[in-house]
């Protein structure tokens, strides 16, 4: 692992526990002088020391991970892109490693202000007032965050893993495993026997699942594939049997006065429960390792779709039995990211779209084919990405269908465990595609695909010079 200097975090941890330097050194089995050197950043944290901290103090070592630091650096780079004075990468890394709470607060403030500005601008346009002055995002009258934004940040705060729901779903899957028939049949029978809920089919249309609580009737679309039907049944089971666990998870200040966000979070958690029931943690993790994370083989083994497998892979972060920390995204042809889930810290810009050099967008032009890309971010971190187009919806001429590109990525250091690394030179950093978080916050110079200038640097304009890369020296 790279050298980690975490002196400020160690001092803060010691202060939180009310320990003297000598007492903490004794608890960790270290000499006081060695701990003092760690706290003064004279010595880096080693794996052995991190394990001592985890075992002796019960601290999640993820709090000291390089993945988190990279995510914080990326977030701060975006937040400070238009700062009056350029902030260097070493300065950002120092804040991310030594003062992560400050970094998270800065990123949260930036996102809140940016979201408020976007909503106020959209509101002004809807009212036809195009001459209005730009809104002040710090104005307390600014509109609150939209429900999907609130829920997205809620899931990200949990790193897309909810242990109580995951274990409950795994236990239920174990009960179903020894029974006759398909999982969908078992879930249908359980809903009727345990909850008095009768399942019926309705004509294929816009709704996949419709539950009439007063009549205790669950209607499923007749156009669903077997795996989709099982997922909808499992979602209903989750809403009924995991109601208390879900209620406890959403009982946080974030949703205290926002019923729409609370309901959306409940549905998201019920869907999480369904995914964990169809793809139980232990069985799925073992199969993923055995099959080298071959998504199509995992689809065949568990009878679900490509997107479902990819999404589940991004949730395997059970303490003591964690899988590869994947990031999962779903984008449409216009570049909108409708799903962004991560088991680790990875960010694309929320300002002005993502990177056009990202392989995910090529998937729309090559249906049914899995594309691969080794991509390098401006901070030097390299990732392996795979992408494929997926489509779903009612069959028939003229009926609308949903089409997305699914992207699944991980740090290149995990690539050896993926079948998709076969034949790629993952160690040649020069062969990796240089991408960024988005044009407005990407400082790469001479990028011919740039759509906007980098906001963190003065725009260089020379009327006597025409270059292949747009916006001159700005990239």
From TrEMBL:
InterPro entries: Cro/C1-type_HTH (IPR001387), HTH_RamB (IPR026281), IrrE_HExxH (IPR010359), Lambda_DNA-bd_dom_sf (IPR010982), ScfR_C (IPR018653), TransReg_Diox_bact_type (IPR050807). Keywords: DNA-binding, Transcription, Transcription regulation. GO terms for cellular component: cytosol. PROSITE patterns: HTH_CROC1. It comes from the Bacteria. Pfam families: HTH_3 (PF01381), Peptidase_M78 (PF06114), ScfRs (PF09856). Residues 10-64 form the HTH cro/C1-type domain. This is Short-chain fatty acyl-CoA regulator family protein. One of its GO terms (molecular function) is DNA-binding transcription factor activity. Belongs to the short-chain fatty acyl-CoA assimilation regulator (ScfR) family. It comes from Xenophilus arseniciresistens.
């Amino acid at each position: 692992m790279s050298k980690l200097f975490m002196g400020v975090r160690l001092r803060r941890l010691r202060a939180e526990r009310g320990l003297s330097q000598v007492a903490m050194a004794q608890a960790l089995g270290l000499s006081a002088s060695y701990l003092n050197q760690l706290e003064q950043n004279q010595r880096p944290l080693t794996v052995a020391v991190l394990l001592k901290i985890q075992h002796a103090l019960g601290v999640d070592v993820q709090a000291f991970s390089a993945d988190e630091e990279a995510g914080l650096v990326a977030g701060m780079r975006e937040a400070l892109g238009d700062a009056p004075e350029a902030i260097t990468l070493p300065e950002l890394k120092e804040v991310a490693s030594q003062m992560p709470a400050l970094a998270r607060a800065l990123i949260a403030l930036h996102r809140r202000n940016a979201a408020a500005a976007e909503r106020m601008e959209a509101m002004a346009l809807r009212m036809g007032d195009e001459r209005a002055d730009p809104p002040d995002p710090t104005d307390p009258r600014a509109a609150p965050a939209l429900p999907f934004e609130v829920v997205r940040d809620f899931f990200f705060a949990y790193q897309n893993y909810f242990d109580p729901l995951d274990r409950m779903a795994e236990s239920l899957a174990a009960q179903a495993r020894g029974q006759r028939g398909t999982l969908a049949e078992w879930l249908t029978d359980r809903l009727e026997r345990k909850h008095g809920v009768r399942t019926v089919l309705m004509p294929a249309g816009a709704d996949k699942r419709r539950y009439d609580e007063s009549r205790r009737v669950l209607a499923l679309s007749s156009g669903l594939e077997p795996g989709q039907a099982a997922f909808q049944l499992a979602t209903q089971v989750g809403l009924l049997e995991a109601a208390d666990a879900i209620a406890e998870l959403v009982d946080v200040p974030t949703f205290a006065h926002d019923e729409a966000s609370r309901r959306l979070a409940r549905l998201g958690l019920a869907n999480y429960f369904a995914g964990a029931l169809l793809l139980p943690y232990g069985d799925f993790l073992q199969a993923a390792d055995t099959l080298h994370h071959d998504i199509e083989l995992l689809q065949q083994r568990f009878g679900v779709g490509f997107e479902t497998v990819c999404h589940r892979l991004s949730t395997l972060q059970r303490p003591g039995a964690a899988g590869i920390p994947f990031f999962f995204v779903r984008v449409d042809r216009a570049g909108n990211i409708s799903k962004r889930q991560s088991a680790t810290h990875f960010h694309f810009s929320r300002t002005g779209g993502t990177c056009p050099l990202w392989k995910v967008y090529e998937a729309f032009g090559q249906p049914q084919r899995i594309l691969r890309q080794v991509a390098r971010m401006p901070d030097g971190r390299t990732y392996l990405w795979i992408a494929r187009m997926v489509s779903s919806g009612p069959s028939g001429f003229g009926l609308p269908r949903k089409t997305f590109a699914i992207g699944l990525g991980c740090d290149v250091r995990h690539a050896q465990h993926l079948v998709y690394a076969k034949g790629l030179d993952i160690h040649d950093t020069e062969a990796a595609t240089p991408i960024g978080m988005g044009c407005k916050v990407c400082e790469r110079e001479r990028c011919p695909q740039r759509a906007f200038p980098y906001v963190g640097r003065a725009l260089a304009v020379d009327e006597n010079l025409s270059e292949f890369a747009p916006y001159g020296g700005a990239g």
